[in-house]
Amino acid sequence: MAETRNIVILGASYAGSGAAHYFLKHVYPHLPKSSKVTYRVILVDPSAKWYLRHASPRAIASEELMPTKHVFLNTVDGFKQYGDAFQFIQGSATSWNPETRIVTISTGHGKEEQLPYHALVLATGTKTTSPLFSLQGTPHTDIQAALRTVRDQVSRAKKIVIAGGGPAGVETAGELGEMLNGSAGWFSSWPSHITTEITLITNSSKLLPKLRESIAKQAETYLNRVGVEVRYNTKVSSATGPSNGKTTVLLHDGEELIADLYIPATGLVPMSEYVPSRLLDGNGYVKNNPETLRVDEAGPMVYAVGDIGTYSRNGIMDIMDGVPVVNSNLKRDLLAAHENVDAKPTGPDRKWKATAAETQLVPVGQSKGVGAVFGWRVPSIFVWLIKGRTFMISESAVKDSLMGKNWEKEKAWDGK
Ligand SMILES: Cc1cc2nc3c(=O)[nH]c(=O)nc-3n(C[C@H](O)[C@H](O)[C@H](O)COP(=O)(O)OP(=O)(O)OC[C@H]3O[C@@H](n4cnc5c(N)ncnc54)[C@H](O)[C@@H]3O)c2cc1C
Q1: Residue 347: is it exposed, middle or buried by C-beta count within 10 angstroms (0-12/13-18/19+)?
Q2: Tell me: the pLDDT tens digits for 104-160?
Q3: For a pocket test of ligand 1, which of 307, 308, 358, 362 has the largest count of ligand atoms closer than 8 A to its C-beta?
Q4: Which residue, among 133, 109, 120, has the nearest Cα to 298 in the 3D structure?
Q5: Is residue 395's pLDDT more than 90?
Q6: Domain range spanning residue 17?
Q7: What sequence ranges are listed for the domain FAD/NAD(P)-binding (predicted)?
Q8: CA of 79 to the centre of ligand 1 (A)
Q9: Substitution site in 43, 51, 135, 273 for ligand 1 pocket (most atoms within 8 Å of beta carbon)
């Protein structure tokens, strides 16, 4: 009987799904076919659906503006095209032994599976404080329930407090502001009628840490135009509730804000509980080689891609650039070890290089936005066209993501 070598990928979101599609399109076809050894990809995630969380600010505001079916993609549907080369396990990695090369997967109801791997790709990402902005390492139904609850609260809220001056906070405030309060007229800086008081709180002296001061100020102007007040240098100490429909938000200086809805849009926590602590940095991210993206201290053929790896600046660009690097090095490693599992590849590895900083597009409501691309400030209309108009969630874009069309072309490199 042929030996089956498992390429196990943990996490099936932007990074894990991307890595799996890229592997099945561009690496798998080049692996030697023999009666002795076969390869298969096993993708593992507790959620059967991939949450397109970059669109969550609009999904929070309204089902009509961002239908649930557009932001939750059925993972398995995208992989049927690869037949037996692919398997999906709905489950969560609970522990990992790099010495025995086995990952323990909990598949629910107390059941566990011991999954041996030949190669392992860690792509379990980060979760946000609020379940509205990310999967939490649990089934997608938890997030859908949270979205239903918040939309109901939004429809009745007279006072909303949002904490966090990064893109999640700014975009959410902008979406809610424009939907609930409308927008200021040509010669005004504030809407004529405020239906819902919205306050965006940041502990920093500016919004949008990745963008320069003048762009961040423009974001504030746009927020004001949809009735959002920004409070700088203000820290939320605690939030209690909701109780009787109200949440008490305590600020660092003792002031209390009573809100009908409080949304924390702060803090990212890496989902790495299953990873041995010696492989993590002080913040819980998996230490990977910033050039090869291998997890050098975890033995051969272990890689990290996406938010979970220390190489990443927690954005999709680092996934778009990281997936080809992981796959090129994985291909080199697999080919070298095909006959002799201890053999290592010769020649140079593919190396990851960070793209220029200051690349970020931040829609503020349905018609405005701020941002920069490769250090160049871009006009509001550009942000609207590329991101704000649909949050890149058109029917065809969603289908392309699901089917891995974004990875149809192999990204060339010198060592190929
Ligand atoms: C509101 C918001 C807007 C954003 N907008 C943008 C944007 O416009 N542009 C941009 O570049 N970036 C944006 N980002 C950042 C971007 O969403 C992340 O960089 C991206 O989601 C990271 O993808 P990932 O696959 O690495 O991890 P995640 O998306 O966090 O996915 C991790 C996956 O791993 C699974 N998982 C977790 N634990 C386990 C386990 N133990 N076993 C198996 N599976 C597990 C989870 O269920 C999940 O499917 C935004 C983020 C937020 C919150």
Answers
A1: exposed
A2: 999 988 899 999 999 999 999 999 999 999 999 889 999 999 999 999 999 999 999
A3: 307
A4: 120
A5: no
A6: 3-131+268-354
A7: 6-313
A8: 19
A9: 135
